[in-house]
Amino acid sequence: MAIAGERSSQASIVANIEDVNDNSPIFTENEYHTRLAEDARFPKSVLTVSATDADTAERGEVRYTLGGEGALLFVVNDTNGEIIVASGAELDREASPTITLEVTAYDTPEGGITQRKTTVIVRLPVLLFF
To answer: Per the domain annotation, does 28 fall within a domain?
Structure first.
């Protein structure tokens, strides 16, 4: 409010503040581990990874992709992070006693230059029985 002599004026200002994508997804674990039987087959659930993003709206939506040496043996649900044995996959304990996967969590599902991502390692010792 401004006062000049006996006159005054008043103004209301509305500011719309938009969240920018300034946070990367954060996994609940630094590295994931679980054991897997050599005879595990599709659609055996292996484990579920989880990441959160502090940004709002679509900038905070987290999706998942799978990479690493054993990526073709598994599938990750891109919305909930569940990893399952892929259809037709056969695990071979002698050839790969431990399978290492890389799961990447990324935000802003539509992509773009502001998209942020984080990768975590998943180690899967393959056992004869358990």
So the answer is: yes
